[in-house]
Request: fold
Amino acid sequence: MLTLFFLVLGLIIGSFLNVCITRIPEELSIVAPGSRCPRCKTPIRPFDNIPVVSWLVLRGKCRDCGLPISPMYPLVELLTGLVFAACYAEFGMGAELFKWLFFAGLVIVLTVTDLQVRMLPDAVNWPGFGIGLVFSAAVPPHDGTALWAVQMFAHRRVPEMAVGLLDGLLGAAFGSLLLWGTGRAYKALRGHEGMGLGDVKMMAMVGTFLGFRGTFLTILVGTFLGSVIGLGIVLTLYVAGWGRGLAERASRRGLGSVQSLRFYLASQYQLPLGTFLGIAALLVVFLSRHPLFYRIPGAH
Reply:
């Protein structure tokens, strides 16, 4: 029953996350006005605002004007419900559960927003950073890096709350500085930006929740996923003939062969790194109890 409760809670919270995803990038209030159709401006009736179910009943269209409703809405609701249920199944009832529920909500908003509009809003990252520091003190990451540093340099007992807060700060510093340094190096080598500051701020927020080791794993898994999926998309675009017309016109002007130009155009397709970092962060949350991936001797 509790698993079902958190599934339903996640569906409801997912509906609110949809509001955040659509309004925050536009710098609109997430409180008022209530949900309404963007074309006919008709307020959404309560019985048309039931997560997932209403979208299916309405066949993905506005009841009044027939405007198609993006399948993103029920997918975000369903994803949030499943993640909430999985968090309860993994962590049980307690403070740690609510830490990861908050984290999951923040990450889902950032992941979907970056996928849709290539943006990781400060309005999510900075409040999430503050919330993460509070949780890192109250529910310390299962990390051990800060504990090791304290034992090496302080030579005295430090309150667990302080150690947890240090874990969060180390994770935030490592994640943000690593991405910032990588972005600066890319710009120096290629002459243009390859990574936005939104990714840097997102990893600062993620680091406060996951600590040093979890942040490292998030970046490792996220960049791996981005590389593999990115290569797959480039090859798919190339095989599908994407950009053929443009490549043929450029070839007639002596800019290269059609095949090489097509591959170049396909390789310029940009994927949102924040989306893959978000997916990786959620994976790390559920791997965090596995000794092979995370725990070390002495970790608190």
